Amino acid sequence: MNEPIRPYPADDHDHHDDLNNLGLQADTNMLARSVLDRRHVLGLGLLGIGLLASNRVSAATGAATGTSAACTPIPSETAGPYPADGSVASGQSLNVLTRRGVVRRDLRRSLGTGNVAPGVPLTLTLKLVNTNGSCAPLRGYAVYAWHCTADGNYSMYSAPIVGEDYLRGVQVSDAGGNVTFQTVVPGCYPGRWPHIHFEVYPTLASATNARSRIQTSQLALPQAMCQQTYTQAAYGSSARFLSQTSLSRDNIFSDGYAAQLPTVTGNATKGYSATLTVGLAR
Length: 282
Prior knowledge:
Layout: H1 23-31, H2 38-43, H3 46-53, E1 121-130, E2 136-137, E3 142-146, E4 168-172, E5 178-184, E6 195-201, E7 215-220, H4 223-229, H5 238-243, E8 263-267, E9 271-280
Parallel strand pairs: 1-9
Antiparallel strand pairs: 1-2, 1-5, 3-4, 3-6, 6-7, 8-9
């Protein structure tokens, strides 16, 4: 099995181990935010935890029941150390966005080698909406999505697959604000909850370097979906790593994830479909 990648550095995101560690000032700041703000949800204490807990997948059906409103702005998150978007990360300035063929629906095949990333199929749809315009769909925006492999490595960065560029790609939103990617369910590695990164650009022409992005965020995968998926051989130690973490301890999602948990259907045998509404203030 390939050696898993290292978790993000602690300074990549404000880290909160649990609600009680936030302190009076932080609680006051959270309560001052809008009702739909994820940090306000945590500020509601046990009620907020209950709301967040309701965003889970049924272990029997794999269907998620999210409570986030359609016009909730998607939280900004770090791009992490493996973005390959032209920014300096991990001591490099790698950029997959300028490669021919990166605008694609299917992310599973490497552009350079033709190798295919193994894993349980996942169809991911992100719906971009304008939170300043009655949730109207945003057409013509470009979304760059990327994530780790089934065994927790990142193409272009992790030693076993530096020559691959799969599980990375760009799509343009249609009239309904939708972008759809065909990929695989990411694995779990030490220090992080299973997730998918994405950046939003105002146009396809501008989606060539991180300097032009208008939003960076992450999507959290539902627990039951991951537990079902990680029984598959391709996922190596993902089940063990998943059991060692939680959304409430993750250094990205610990301050709230209601707006970042997709609706999911399907199973680990036939594959999954996941949808998430991405609110942008335009």
